[in-house]
UniProtKB/TrEMBL annotation:
InterPro entries: DUF6801, FN3_dom, FN3_sf, Ig-like_fold. This is Fibronectin type III domain-containing protein. One of its GO terms (molecular function) is hydrolase activity, acting on glycosyl bonds. It comes from Lentzea flaviverrucosa. SMART domains: FN3.
Length: 299
């Protein structure tokens, strides 16, 4: 990596409330995103539910902070910052037992309030989540996960930006095994303001990184119970493009030469996050595309 000193920027080349129907419990863990530093913070929430009783939840909020500058948790100030975030719910304690269990899927959602403090002041933001398909047939050892992201952040003033977690809301739509809806359960959750709420810190660097533009417009073209076809857009730069590296749930699936890929051998009824990187003939890689969360249909 070569540095050229300039007065202007440095240029560098190269759910519980499933629970309200079934439980109230603890959140933990989450998948790591490619090209991201995983950080986590434990939050203890008190939730008011639409069913009447309040519930206590211990929530692990897991973030994938960008590594797109020089070092961990860095971005170039002129480039957008994409921050993934996941929730994971475990150790459910029964509130109501249903014969045959209940199912949650992407109809169930969550939102997480947050604020970012940095050299340009404090801004508020909100992450949106979709719940991964989950069957709750037992209240022991069941994990309910939700995947999401914050809106694109522009950290244009160089310096350090702290990401703090705030309140959480849940909208859960459980159904019976035969698909019969069981109504909507909502929960508004707040945490002790004295509790540590720092998810992580991103360093915005005054630098220009010479690399291919990142792919954009990542989208699902089609799915089957065992495969997905993804497509995206990409811009050229002065070096010819060698191909595109595709990542699924943080794992590298290979290099393709077209702006489309079909990934096979997937398990039905699963949630995934995909990203794409452009690579030129000299091996210079773009930053990661914005993540795309999608769900494979049931068999």
């Amino acid at each position: 990596m070569k540095l050229r000193r300039k007065r202007s920027p440095l240029r560098i080349s190269a759910l519980s409330l499933v629970s309200a129907l079934v439980a109230a419990g603890a959140l933990t863990g989450a998948a790591t995103s490619a090209s991201a530093q995983t950080t986590a913070v434990r939050m203890d929430y008190t939730c008011t539910t639409s069913l009447g009783p309040s519930a206590q939840m211990t929530v692990w909020v897991v973030g994938g902070l960008p590594d797109e500058g020089a070092g961990l948790n860095t971005v170039a100030r002129h480039e957008p910052a994409y921050i993934d975030v996941d929730l994971d719910l475990r150790e459910l304690r029964p509130v109501l037992t249903m014969a045959g269990g209940v199912r949650l899927d992407t109809d169930s959602t969550a939102t997480l309030d947050a604020h970012i403090t940095g050299p340009d002041g404090t801004r508020t933001t909100q992450a949106s989540f979709t719940v991964a398909p989950t069957w709750l047939t037992t209240t022991q050892g069941t994990a309910v996960r939700a995947a999401g992201s914050f809106p694109t952040q522009y950290l244009t003033t160089p310096g350090y930006y702290d990401l703090h977690v705030d309140d959480l809301t849940l909208t859960l739509r459980p159904e019976r095994a035969d698909g019969t809806p069981l109504g909507t359960v909502t929960a508004s959750c707040s945490h002790d303001p004295a509790q540590n709420d720092l998810l992580g810190t991103v360093w915005s660097q005054s630098a220009i990184f010479e690399r291919p533009p990142r792919p954009s417009g990542l989208r699902v073209v089609s799915t089957t119970p065992t495969s997905v076809t993804l497509a995206w857009e990409a811009s050229s730069w002065w070096n010819p493009t060698q191909g595109y590296e595709v990542y699924l749930d943080g794992g590298h699936t290979g290099l393709v030469t077209e702006k489309q890929v079909t990934l096979t051998g997937l398990a039905p009824d699963r949630q995934h996050r995909a990203k794409v990187v452009t690579t030129d003939v000299q091996g210079i890689r773009s930053t990661m595309s914005q993540g795309l969360i999608f769900t494979i249909p049931p068999a």
